[in-house]
Structure formats: structure tokens, C-alpha cells
Amino acid sequence: MKNKLGQKIVGSIAxxxxxxxxxxxxxxxxxxxxxxxxGAGGFDKTSKTVDNNGNTTIQCAGSGNTPCxxxxxxxxxxxxxxxxxxxxxxxxxxxxxxxxxxxxxxxxTSDDTFGDNSQINVNE
Length: 124
Hints:
Layout: H1 2-22, E1 30-36, E2 43-50, E3 56-63, H2 78-89, E4 94-98, E5 105-110, E6 118-123
Parallel strand pairs: 1-3
Antiparallel strand pairs: 1-6, 2-3, 4-5, 5-6
């Protein structure tokens, strides 16, 4: 009986160690979205990268026809991104928002209401 219990404990520890090494950590993750030179139709070049820690970096440049991505890897960051995008569209071109529910802080700045030249940062 003790041997089976010991095997289960060792097996559980091994699984936990494997998962901790293979699943990206999202604690203290961040989201950065920078746009420059966009046009009415979108951007010429867009890139989105997510590293092993769940950090999202989005860069969009040049006038083109591709929309700049806005989706964060970490769902805790998405409300801040959405809030900043809404504020920019409403003409609030610079600001800070602290989400009381998930503890993230979002800052943004934009040259115009279209977000053609803007930056949004979300930090956990």
C-alpha cells in the first residue's frame, strides 16, 4: 500500500515539474503594441510575437491594408487593451488605467483617434 502511494506522489511531482517547464508563465507578463505611419486602410507591416513568459509584443508600421492586431496572449491584459483602444477612439489620446479586478496597469498614447502612431502598454 505504501509503495503505491509513493509511486503516485512521485508521479504527481514529475508531472508538475514537466508542466512548470512546458507551460509559459504569465505572472508579471506584459503587452506592448506600437504603431507608426499607419493609414486609413491599416498598415503595411505587422508583427506579433509572444515569448515563453507570455509577453506580447505587437509592431505595425507603414500605410497599408492590414489591420494591426490587438489581441493579448494573456487574458488578464485584454481588458486594458480594449479600454485603451476605446479611449483613443473617443479622443482621449494619453492616459493610464488601473484595472481593480486583475491588477493590471495600462498606459497609452496616440497622435490621433485612429491610432496610426500610438503605443499601448499593459503591465501585470
